[in-house]
């Protein structure tokens, strides 16, 4: 947290900005205050100890920095080939500088015979080394800074800002003056003991040094400090939230394990629970009699048996006089849960109903009434559950399946369906790497089902190129002859639903030739069908009337067909690893050996090959999620997209995992010792929340 004054000083009042540039900064970079500007950290530095001579330049280098003179500047070519070409030399030789954009502007700006510092990516073009769209700065201005002599900040900016004088150099000048005059207003925000035990640089020094470091070591220290800061305050916020929830919300008290639970557990449950399932049921049991509201996330790989854990929890609610509901992201999944749960329960244990978008109006009205009268014990459904008209008599537990499909708001709406908020159990089959879970769901308790029911044979996975197509067809025939069923999945193309269909239709043509009627029957499910049509096709497959299910990824979630033993994924390179893993989880649910065949085009990047290789090597969802995080970054992992938590400026969720765990533990220890942050040593943390309450930092993490 910076000093209040800096965060309240409008950007236009900062020396060197004024109203015009101020408006631009707001629009272009979202910088509204002096404090915001200070947080506009450099994205790289010019290390003035790292200059190269022109004759040393290797076109393979990612970037190079040279000092030299602009010898010539001329416009060449016409129309699309029109460009500005500069000849740039030092005492060892010359390179070409090339611009395709902003030609008129640059012609005014650049001066022949001036000495410049040039930075960019070298390339070899027709035997000549050139640098396209280099960053240029006059040598003089690059050495004019009074604080730093060697390492200079480079700031991101935009065309419009550049035209108003706020190119990187312009920003540097404003920043320099701001820091010279106002750095004393930057206040320390971490407790002394935290700074000491982690050997951190002070906040003020770090803010100064991130912009104008005196040495590489100093820069490193500043980066460490600001990373620490960033992660610390995220965790502080999350854990404070968790604690507030506990204080504020008394939970329903499930005092007893009663008849519904016991009757089901001892008389109906067709299999023994795995140890992991037992452990999680116990955790839920403990939460629901703690007097506080439960907020628990269950992570468990596909097929790990989350549903039955949810069911046992719902029975617990019923035994204590409450109702329960379970929300699933799709109609198909909701129906499957409904049928599955009814089958498991049999008659007489609990009254279960289904509510989805396609429940007819009349039935819906009756259902609403029965629900309010408390005649329905368990309501299963889709988003339809959230509607205001759906009122419970006494909702004690909410289960959300595949929780990453729902936004926080939707969760919140269910939560508000009772004046005492119900216990919340959210489930996901997308294992989230630990660090990500800590950051995304740091305010939830987490249970992990890390064990599959006994007797499951691990799915065999292979990666084939197109040339094995005939063998794959042969294998499908073999499996179908043995009575098994086969999925063939095509990628969902984000940009175009039509393209999805094209992929699917092209594949379908080949399949129908190889697997002709009447011997073979094929179900087709894709995004452009109505829910009803989809359901019909799914049903045919579930009932074994068709042997092959051709689909886009609509079957990703939850669908359970134990007799299906082969999953073929076309264009597998187009899927994320976690998604592939989810799809693979559709098979291997019965007693038979199951297979997953990843088909890919012949032209596969090295990275693409590696990714598919990971799928071949492991069935462990957590390992796959970690790999996915490393390969693609957190933004691509399901469920992270809507979360602003991932807009980290300094820290990196992939490379700073250890630091994050360390910080989380420290923050937990702080709250353990001083839950209200009332000890004098935690004064700064207390002040942080006081400030937040007043709304001064509402949009700031720190
Ligand atoms: P998921 O965690 O993917 O939601 P499900 O709850 O759908 O998994 O369970 C997958 C299958 O495994 C279901 O058919 C379920 O009945 C079965 N199952 C669950 N727990 C066990 C167990 N302990 N032993 C044997 N089968 C189980
Ligand atoms: Mg499930």
What's this entry about, in short?
By secondary structure, the protein is of the alpha/beta class.
What does this protein look like?
This protein has 702 residues and is α/β, with parallel strands linked by helices. It is 40% helix and 17% strand. The protein is built from 25 helices and 22 strands. The chain has a 7-stranded mixed β-sheet. A 7-stranded parallel β-sheet has the order 12-13-11-14-15-10-16, with helices on both faces. The C terminus is likely disordered. Magnesium ion binds next to helix 13.
Please describe the biggest sheet, giving its number of strands, its sense, and whether it closes into a barrel: 7 strands, mixed
- Whole-Å distance between the termini? 4 Å
SS class: alpha/beta
Count of helical regions: 25
Overall number of strands: 22
Side-by-side strand order of the widest sheet: 6-7-4-3-2-5-8
Mean pLDDT: 86
Bound molecules: adenosine-5'-diphosphate, magnesium ion
Instruction: Report the sheet-strand fraction.
Output: 15-25%
* Bulk shape: globular
Which percent bin holds the helix content? 40-55%
In the predicted model, the low-confidence regions spanning at least 5 consecutive residues are 637-645, 695-702
Question: What structural keywords apply?
Answer:
binds magnesium ion; alpha/beta; 17% strand; 702 residues; disordered C terminus; binds adenosine-5'-diphosphate; seven-stranded parallel beta sheet; 25 helices
